[in-house]
Amino acid sequence: MLRDLIAGCGGFAGAGRCASGLVRVALSRRGQQRDGRRSCPSRLQMREGVLSTSGTSKVTEDVRETHHGPGGGIYLAFVPWVLFSLITQHDTLKAAAITALLASVAIAAPSVAAGRPKMLELGAVFAFVGFTIVAFIADPSTTAWLARYARAIAALLLALIAFSSLRFVPFTEQYARESVPRQFWSTPRFKQINRQLTLMWGFVFLAMMVSHVIAGGIDTRRGNTIFNWVIPIILIIWAAKRTGEASAPDGE
What we know:
81% helix
């Protein structure tokens, strides 16, 4: 085989030239392969690129899918007020006030213990402390009047809590922070949405107050059903729906 190679290259001298040529070609090909490897990204680089891209996409999705409104905790804070309205109609003012006070303390305690007291929950505690005191010290005529308009007074107190919270932190924002990452708390959109929601709830409470006052003034079974229950429930459902729409991620 060697003899045929030498003969094909024209003797030993030609074989030397031929061999050196083959060496140069081989070296040239190895250089091209090396350059090709340098120009192409390695598997690790490609993997890092994919991870970087996926990480960026994840952050983008987090921003797009961030909720801006309050979570379900806000509705738990309404429970003492609902209990107060229900018990006032079917039992004494004392029973309604005490039950609502106990419920409000139980709901407010966890946030206070965690160092994050919420204005709506603390407002409920103070409101029902006042109702309880009045229920025990007032004369029967005052108690009867208070029982008739208790729901209107409660709605007015809720409206005052909502509007006064705008001077500090909108009360819906305190609940929204529980489900929104901290880096979004100071964004203009987060602030704007919660101010709008707090204003909306404040006006809903005012409308409920008017409805309850009308019910107390009419003081009939039909008037009680319409103005103490139907209209307030419709208002709350509407406000809850609007709150849910605002709380939905931007991408939805």
